[in-house]
Amino acid sequence: MDNQKPLTTSTGAPVGDNQNSMTAGHRGPTLIQDYHLLEKLAHFNRERVPERVVHAKGAGAHGYFEVTKDISQYTKAAFLSEVGKRTPIFIRFSTVAGELGSADTVRDPRGFAVKFYTEEGNYDLVGNNTPVFFIRDAIKFPDFIHTQKRHPQTHLKNPNAVWDFWSLSPESLHQVTILMSDRGIPASLRHMHGFGSHTFKWVNAEGEAVWVKYHFKTEQGVKNMDVAVAARLAGEHPDYHTEDLFTAIDKGDFPAWKLYVQIMPVQDAETYRFDPFDVTKVWSQKDYPLIEVGRMVLDRNPENYFAEVEQVTLSPGNFVPGIEASPDKMLQGRIFAYADAHRYRVGANHNTLPINRPIAEVNNNQRDGAMRADGNGGSSIYYEPNSYGGASESPSHKPAPFAVSGLADSVPYDHNDHYTQAGDLYRLLSEEERLRLVANIVAAMTPVEKDEIKIRQIGHFYKADPEYGTRIAEGLGLPAPQGV
């Protein structure tokens, strides 16, 4: 065959026979000297890295982000510095609870994680398709995720654990309402919004700070999937969303999102009616209107799923000058946890992989480690401070200082109104949407064995809106709360 490339071993030696292993005689045992056979089998045994503990099932694509409005008054981030500026990106969409081979069309939040390859380093905005989350302190995250995973004895999903945890964690009510609504199953990855979810800090060139929240609004319009269709596709076509995204881009139907932000003056955080760093709450857009920033377009599919979608590593701790963390406790925990997961799953040198490698020059003293595939720093200076012209710190890029006060202690958030925003959301829904929401919750809670758990959760729904709680109680055949 013309232009046929020769098959080789991993060290480049040509392979003479890829159909038959080497044996001692026609029917003799296989020889250990058949290096190609041993290499092939040994590599095959190691072709799977550990899947992500959460967000294991995902799809991704390349694209660009273009600034459409001047926001330099709020941030000095170079990739946001001028209208028309384009920055290459990679985005990974995902489900949260399922395993790598799970179905796309399950009721679950969707991960919405964007890597911006900026000239000042990689900036990762690791969010979801919801503006809030189930919990607001990272210390509860392992317990929460355990409830979404499989029972250690039966290896089955466990609704008892799910609703027991939620009923004992009333801060989850807002996100539970979103999850059980029509938005819990998007029609496709292209037809959903994305959110940074957390509050972040922007700092401008003068060192002035503001608090910020990110909103990616889909240009395709929000579309959701009927529960019966979703259930059918989960069996017939479990990779439906993955295929839809790939096919759309492949045929030139490039999905796009407009990025907006909400800006809160730093001093407002002290008096706002909800804690602005509580990721279970939103900021009213009447108080802090959406401000246009730019447009994100996905226009190129991955060439290799494993090398790009599976090995991409995103961390909310990957900031660039002009963008910093807030006191959000959930964000603070994720800054450690995500990067640590990548070091375990992909390796200490995960940022040297092509999909993760920044376009900015990297100068640091991190050396060695498994799978160090670049020059490992060569013969350059490997410590700091130094007297030999090696890499050194840049005081001008220190994060903006912020005041702290009080005692070192394990303390909860000050605000515990978990019902107002969930109730407001319920009342925003049409009657048809409310009926579907209630039906979804009743179906999900029916398998729960203990009425105690059901009654406790119904109480939360009732506090959000009496009609909300009463309808669920009636659907479960339980009494509605009295005098809650």
Tell me the strand percentage band. 15-25%
- Report the CATH superfamily of the domain at 58-139 and 185-349: Catalase core domain
Low-confidence stretches: none
Architecture of the domain at 58-139 and 185-349 in CATH? Beta Barrel
- CATH-derived topology of the domain at 58-139 and 185-349: Catalase HpII,  Chain A, domain 1
Distance between the termini: 78 Å
In N-to-C order, the SSE pattern is: HEEEEHHHEEEHHEEHEHHHHH
Q: Considering DSSP H and I runs of 4 or more, what fraction of the residues is helical?
A: 25-40%
Please state the average pLDDT score.
Answer: 95
> What is the global morphology?
globular
State the gist of this model.
The protein is 27% helix and 15% strand.
In terms of topology, how is this protein built?
Blueprint lengths: L34 H11 L12 E10 L18 E10 L14 E9 L2 E8 L12 H8 L10 H9 L5 H8 L13 E2 L4 E4 L5 E10 L8 H10 L3 H11 L5 E10 L25 E10 L4 H6 L12 E2 L4 H17 L74 H9 L2 H15 L5 H14 L1 H11 L8
Antiparallel strand pairs: 1-2, 1-9, 2-3, 3-4, 5-7, 6-7, 6-10, 7-8, 8-9
Helix pairs in contact: 2-3, 3-11, 4-9, 10-12, 11-12
